[in-house]
Design a protein that fits this description.
By secondary structure, the chain is an alpha+beta fold. The chain contains seven helices and 20 strands. Helices cover 23% and strands 29% of the residues. The strands form six sheets. The chain has a five-stranded antiparallel β-sheet with strand order 6-7-12-10-11, with no helix packed on it. It has a four-stranded mixed β-sheet with strand order 1-2-5-3. The chain has a four-stranded antiparallel β-sheet with strand order 13-19-18-17, with helices on one face. A hairpin with a 5-residue loop joins strand 10 and strand 11. The relative contact order is 0.13. The model has no long low-confidence stretch (mean pLDDT 97). Bound molecules: flavin-adenine dinucleotide and uridine-diphosphate-2(N-acetylglucosaminyl) butyric acid.
């Protein structure tokens, strides 16, 4: 187990915010996990579990310990007509897991290509993109209970998955370290091309009847074009969730705001585009201190010039107020905000 005292977290969060941890513990093997489970008293008020740091905003230092789960491993558990059960340890890179699965001839996961971060964080907010969510594939999640050091398994129905949410992010936040996930993938490929732009991208690629790998490539091409690369400019992807509203609210808004993009998610529920709301308020490309709204995508806040976490948060708050004033809609942040 690697241990560093008074460690910088700047290279460990995709916003590239300077923050410090009293101690950094890096779990690299199953043995490290056992030692951690028996010897370490985790206190969610002072300590933090960190994956790839691509969905976290540090507004303060971590006075206690930051625990990095870097335990690798992925394998096929069972392979049958009903599906293929794949297991990934929490320290596996998510996108590499997607590519490996496709190389095994498996599908169902291709629309989730190029999402940054580690497999252990994927259930936290039920990662989703291009019409697919982790919940569509997930079989079970194994966790380490940080209170008593015991291992526990949650099956899909226990996880309380919702849009960018799960029990691990809400009711049980800070209670578990996710050690591994199991996904049910398919040998028979059925393309999911419902999300706007996917079919068009495949056409540009000259593909009529795509393979799973070609869908993955199309998703990668769109994402590279639409989203700023955190290696070039710090960001955490979408900073806000897309608001979910009722039909009656949607009807009222539509009368006042023409061109309002709405996507049906249930009989009486529609999703609004937070990017559109933010762009309409004139924020796209605007800066506040070292923080800015990406000129590529209005939902992405960026670390333009050595921003502090407080500067990013101040910009987010100002955007939230504008959207509230103009549309009477409350935006909810998506990343974990580590604040006092
Ligand atoms: P971190 O940022 O390290 O952690 C996020 C949260 O999970 C924290 O609360 C942390 O404490 C907790 N956590 C992490 N690992 C564990 C663990 N093993 N056990 C318990 N708790 C843990 N998300 C999407 O859903 N869809 C997208 O399309 C998408 N696109 C993105 C694009 C960009 C450019 C960026 C920067 C981010 C994007 N994200 C997207 C957000 C992010 O990539 C995902 O939320 C990802 O799952 C975060 O993984 P991570 O390992 O970096 O988690
Ligand atoms: N739009 C604007 N201005 C912009 C960008 C987009 O008005 O600057 C509008 C357009 O109407 C566009 C619509 O927003 O058609 C949707 O844009 P996009 O396809 O980029 O999707 P999104 O709703 O902004 C969501 C997720 C992304 C995910 C994509 C693809 C949330 C909060 N975000 O973004 O996830 O990759 O769909 O499925 O649900 C993330 O969670 O970090 C993330 C990047």
């Amino acid at each position: 187990m690697k241990r560093t005292f008074n460690a910088s977290l700047k290279h460990l969060n995709s916003f590239a915010i300077e923050a410090r941890a009293g101690q950094l513990l890096e779990l690299e093997t199953e043995h490290d996990l056992q030692v951690f489970a028996t010897d370490f008293q985790f206190d969610p008020a002072h300590d933090l579990i960190l994956g790839g740091g691509s969905n976290v905003l540090f507004v303060r230092d971590i006075e206690g310990t930051v625990v990095l789960n870097r335990i690798p491993g992925k394998k096929i558990i069972t392979d049958s007509k009903d599906g293929v059960l794949v297991e990934a340890c929490g320290g596996e890179n998510w996108h590499q897991l997607v590519l490996w699965s496709l190389d095994q001839g498996l599908s169902g996961i291709e629309n989730l290509s190029l999402i940054p971060g580690l497999a252990g964080a994927a259930p936290m907010q039920n990662i989703g993109a291009y019409g697919v969510e982790l919940a569509d594939l997930l079989d079970s999640v194994q966790v380490l209970d940080l209170e008593n050091g015991g291992l526990h398994e949650f099956v899909h129905s226990d996880c309380q998955f919702a849009y960018r949410d799960s029990r691990f992010k809400s009711t049980d936040a800070g209670k578990y370290l996710i050690t591994r996930i199991r996904l049910r993938l398919q040998r028979e490929f059925k393309a999911n091309l419902g999300y706007a732009g996917l079919t068009e991208e495949l056409q540009v690629m000259g593909v009529d009847i795509p393979t799973a790998k070609q869908v993955s490539q199309a998703v990668i091409r769109i994402r590279r074009r639409k989203l700023p690369d955190p290696h070039i400019i710090g960001n955490a992807g979408s900073f806000f969730k897309n608001p979910v509203i009722t039909q009656s609210t949607a009807d009222m808004l539509k009368m006042e705001f023409h061109g309002l993009p709405l996507y049906r998610v249930a009989e009486d529920e529609l999703k609004l585009s937070a990017a559109w709301l933010i762009e309409q308020c004139g924020w796209k490309g605007r800066s506040m201190g070292g923080a800015a709204v990406s000129d590529q995508h209005a939902l992405v806040l960026v670390n333009k010039s050595n921003a502090t976490g407080s500067e990013i948060l101040a910009l987010a708050d100002a955007i939230g107020e504008s959207v509230q004033d103009r549309f009477d809609i409350k935006l909810q942040p998506e990343p974990r905000i580590v604040r006092s």
